[in-house]
């Protein structure tokens, strides 16, 4: 019998913030979503369903129980105020980095990656980004706004400049985005992960930030997302990417985004996110 | 055989704007929603499913086919920019009123009522509002914002002042909202429609605007909404209200809001909205 | 910014156990369910969705924020071992009562009421039970077992004897159960709540335990339950019962059971449970 | 242990045809459905889910186990050939009547009532029909066809002539249908069951056939149907009708139609049909 | 602000019929479906959800905006009258071809391919068909009928004779169908697309009609279909087929069929159809 | 017309027990399930949906109609009494084997495999098991119990000892389970089916029992299961395993488990189980 307050930390990640090396936090924001919103519910859906997963990973041969991870829950974001919400995420990430912990952020829509990456790039000026996604997200503005899920990687680009962002799995975007990437601004691989191994090798000793938009997966695997884009990756391919990421010696932070749990009541999409979180937390602890 | 462009106007409401007396338009906006978003999809869900309803109403003994109604579809609202979106709605409504037509607006979240009512109150300075809802919506601000689904009736109040807004069915809100209403600002009836008949009698010859948040219905009847609040009205009670509204000689505009169609894949909630739209269009034609 | 561990206590009920007057705990057990299992997920579904409800109740004119309630989460029950699980619930309840707090238990299947009531009846030897349910639950055994969701009220009867249990809303059971009740063992009202007011009056100053099987509600209102039984109560009728319960001066504990959240992905059934929990917590604080 | 072939007869209705007094059969046909098809799956969904209901009815104080009912399953209907399918239903019903058993038919779309009623009216020339439905179903043709779910009661009328059909709960139809009824062809009660008691009294000793389109129920109660029409009956009202039907001394057959089980995955709509079938079978045995 | 009638043409395909080169039309018919009906709703579901897709295709490096496509919506088909409905489709297609436009038809059940192909084969006497499907559809009759979803390719065969139809992906059918194909009537490739490249090469300069039953995809990718058949194609394989089709110099018309959108409320299946339509329209414009 | 009792035997498997060579039976038990229960409904869901599959298999080139298979339905298992339920399964299997028929068992949770395998191993002392699953299921106890879905293969191991169990596709488990397997107790292949061909060759003439936990499939293919584990097999890979199993000359029994049909209302998961049952029945008849 325990009479402590309910603890719904992500599976086995019940350390206090102070003692942790990796910090999980979720960003319940989906206000710039252009199609089907609902990613704001991802964080807690993942927490609740994480009871269904083992803490041991046969992929990493690591056990969540052997590491110190804290889960500080959904950040408290002002509804409908994009700038203010992004600032909360930015300040939180900055503090986590100052405290010498690694940020493991869970979206929310993809725009929430921007303040995390901004904080990371301020600490690690030579940071590189590996970006796995169905969408380019390279527009300079979208519906007249600079800050949108459709511009997020462009805003990250603004922080670090050309040659630092490596995009994989891309299969949707405006023609101009593909051309802008091709002009040398980002490394953009269409449709699959071919070339990821070489990129990982070249970034082996660099600080690397990883952002995964789970809609890179085929909608068959991951229907619970706002903009399903057929023709994507199998989950085994993503697991293959994680195997490669083991070779990176300096992952400085990571996130995944765009689970919209109510769109897939079977729970399969949330299970994908749960497993992804376990693997990414372990990668950050490596 | 017809080789015209696809026409998905709401059931039998295929008149051109110029010749119409009532104009249907929908506002795909849900950005200030605090719980489950998705009302942006209401308009087109209603259009597509309207094929399942008769054009004759045995309640009104009127037939949609006998009246001129146009359906101009979803307004083109900038995603994530609340002020700009509200302005589009305001300008559109103003034009409709200038053209001597009646606005029949379909939300979207409840905040979209504000610009419609503002335009209406500018034309009819002595307009009164009948507001049927589960929620007070009387906060002065919400999460630090003046414009929110939770403040919408307070903003409408700002346009017309005390004694002009009549609220029914209310069963959720902050304590201060109930007290503020009671202080003489609005007529607020908790839980049901008792007293509506007297209100209708007293407003018989006044210009009246009607706004219905469909979540006033019990979630059993209408689960497809962002914030289901148990203990609400049966649909027959709403039909009873419509019977009363026949006595109003000067309805100057109307709306209903907060259908979130994806939350109820059975289609029953959308069917509620479809029938409500038929009845309200007929009331506006009366 | 807060860097504390994630807190998913039921809406505004974040007190520590020691300082609380009412204790919420949930029992994730559904092993004797004969039709559709899944109630084990009720507790956390209610916690997560409680963000969608106000802390103020216009029914009670009370505010959750003004009272000290703790939420100790799902009890840790051994899967598949009915007796051992019931014992954990019993010991937990006993401790809560010893600590002079009131138990507010959330099921799980209805059998979990038994150990709670047993502990309560040991402390209050003259306790009476108000039981609102679609089903009699009066079998002496079910599929050869004494401990089952279908025998739970009979087991409670074994603790207190005839004349102490008042059943309302019953519309399903074996013929012999109705006859056994009628023989003077329990007060059994079929189909509705008629007579509840008189019962409440007669129990005004007695210790009373309240158990509500939410399947007493019509499946239209509450489809998210294992054994939907058409022809039940509207939620307003249950709210009416809560109004009556305000007259009880000595409610010593309470529970509700049988939400199976995955069966109703619209969230409406969970919303019913969320509101019920708010109202019952406030009744316990009265 | 039993090594007999799987038996999925409706709850406790496992008699052989020869020894039975009432015969259950289902008609998997939905080809003239104009909106959402799927009623062809009703029969077997009801059989499988009937495990969730008691065989004792506290409404009738009767027990399915005390009566001889057979369930001969889905009739084998040629897909897409309306006339041929109706003929199979007609011949089957005729044989059941010849064998001095009572037909209890489960739809399918409402058109399947026609061949059943035709056979019944041939045996009982003075048969009357009680028809409970949301829709008039009185068109003379629909999309150019005489045989359609929308013409079914008109076709039944053709068999028996004016003054023999009593319609209740009607809330949807073409204007001309209401007028045609009013001209003395059928007794048509809009919206509810008011007057049913008088009708039952007047038909007490007449042969009566009962047909219930379950969409007479409010979509909140019964969302699993092709054409949900808000503003319908509560299930308790239908149970009230069944209480009245006990006074009929000569019910010669019955059916209910229009469950589309896949449209309501919660199972609540199927539970409504299961309970309705239990009550109607018991009424036929009375 | 626009006050034009609502326009729900498929994404960016808003040209008037007269000025268009490719014409989209949908056939809301599912009356011969033997298992789960519902494909009649495909056309409008695709239109509404097409807002979620980019108009640029990185596969074709083409942009819908650069081409003239009209969308004339659901054809007006008489419900329940198979022959008459097929005739409407036939006449419409004939007219489109006479007007020197290319038909892009969206089902409906697979039988609707027959009248389109008949019209096409009358204009192009040497037309060949590429047929991608899970099912043979080669029965000569089905439940005693010549015109059925299960006979559709056999009926097309009747128009053009042996050696002109190339089937891929087939994994379900009657034994006799496989044998009949093997006897030299059609080219039938079981399970996958192996050999498609050679077939495309051989048909390079021939008039080719393409029909895709989307149930060729694995149900994991495309659960929203009436007869899910496990073990099918990934969407990438279908995209690979489209790449091959670029080599065909004379595609004269195309269709895809069998989306049943209500069966997959996640929207993933509809997203598959939306993307398929974009790619096929672009192929027709090539 | 047939007036026989309803027959919902699995597709074309309507032989009487006495004359059959293969016996289908289902075990509606899910009491030790640790995450989402519901597999008890698998058997009848498969029966009802089997109408949607052909009786001919193009994979086996065999036809269900050419073989004698009986389907004795759900076994009658005491709810909530694990030991007693397992005994019913054990006794049933023993009798089937004594009657010189082959058992084809359908779960339920995986624990139901144990009594089947126990009976089989008593008849065939040198039996080997091929086990395809996402989970190790090798714990010696789970939540203090010896008999659990998580210990089932360990219990089977207790019957036959080391070197007799061959596990494939495993991607989840406790670290110690992987180590225990590796210590020579079972052959355990992680993640995929590599090496299955060699195993099949080596077991060619041995008695072999096959148990498939369908959650070995990727949740994209098979979301309808209690513990979805991303990164699994495609259905084509399982079909490939069946091709290999044709080489086994002495398959003595088989089962598959863990379909939870209500979790996937699209029916795609049930379709997977239906096809698997057809293929496995045919393999048993080979």
Compact summary:
Chains A, B, C, D, E, F: It is an enzyme of class 3 (hydrolase). Six copies of one chain form a homohexamer. The first copy, chain A, has 286 residues and is α/β, with parallel strands linked by helices.
General description of the model:
The structure is a homohexamer of 286-residue chains. In chain A, 33% of the residues lie in helices and 17% in strands. The first copy, chain A, is an alpha/beta fold and 286 residues long. Chain A has one domain: Ureohydrolase domain (Arginase, Chain A), CATH 3.40.800.10. In chain A, strand 2 (56-57) and strand 3 (62-63) form a beta hairpin. Chain A is globular. Chains in contact: A-B, A-C, A-E, A-F, B-C, B-D, B-E, C-D, C-F, D-E, D-F, E-F. Chains A, B, C, D, E, F: Its cofactor is Mn(2+). Chains A, B, C, D, E, F: Mn(2+) binds at residues 110, 133, 135, 137, 213, 215.
> Poorly predicted ranges of chain A (pLDDT <50, ≥5 residues)?
none
Most extensive protein-chain contact, per-chain counts: A-C, 31 and 31 residues
CATH class of chain A: Alpha Beta
Largest sheet of chain A at a glance? 8 strands, parallel
Count of distinct strands of chain A: 10
Distance between the termini of chain A: 34 Å
Largest beta sheet: strand ordering of chain A: 4-1-5-10-9-6-7-8
Order of helices and strands of chain A: EHEEEHEHEHEHEHEHEH
Protein name (chains A, B, C, D, E, F): Putative agmatinase
Organism (chains A, B, C, D, E, F): Acholeplasma brassicae
Binding site for Mn(2+) (chains A, B, C, D, E, F): 110, 133, 135, 137, 213, 215
Enzyme class (chains A, B, C, D, E, F): hydrolase
């Amino acid at each position: 019998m325990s009479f402590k307050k309910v603890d719904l930390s992500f599976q086995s990640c019940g350390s206090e913030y102070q003692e942790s090396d990796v910090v999980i936090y979720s960003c319940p924001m989906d206000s710039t979503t252009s199609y089907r919103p609902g990613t704001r519910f991802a964080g807690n859906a993942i927490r609740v369903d994480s009871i269904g997963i083992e803490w041991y990973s046969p992929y990493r041969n690591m056990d969540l129980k052997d590491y110190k991870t804290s889960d500080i829950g959904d950040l408290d974001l002002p509804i409908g105020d994009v700038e203010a919400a992004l600032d909360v995420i930015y300040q939180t990430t900055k503090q986590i980095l100052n405290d010498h912990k690694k940020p493991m952020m869970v979206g929310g829509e993809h725009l929430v990656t921007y303040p995390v990456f901004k904080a990371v790039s301020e600490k690690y000026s030579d940071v590189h980004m590996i970006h796995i996604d169905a969408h380019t997200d390279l527009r300079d503005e979208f519906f007249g706004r600079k800050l949108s899920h459709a511009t997020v990687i462009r805003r990250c680009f603004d922080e670090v400049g050309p040659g630092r962002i490596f995009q994989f799995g891309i299969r949707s975007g405006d023609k101009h985005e593909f051309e802008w990437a091709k002009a040398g601004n980002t490394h953009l691989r269409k449709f699959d992960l071919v070339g990821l191994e070489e990129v990982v090798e070249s970034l082996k000793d660099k600080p690397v930030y990883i952002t995964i938009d789970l809609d890179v997966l085929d909608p068959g695997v991951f229907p619970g997302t706002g903009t399903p884009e057929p023709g994507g990756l199998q989950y085994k391919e993503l697991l293959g990417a994680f195997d490669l990421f083991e070779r990176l010696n300096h992952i400085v932070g990571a996130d995944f985004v765009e689970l919209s749990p109510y769109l897939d009541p079977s729970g399969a999409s949330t299970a994908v996110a749960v497993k992804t979180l376990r693997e990414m937390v372990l990668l950050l602890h490596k």
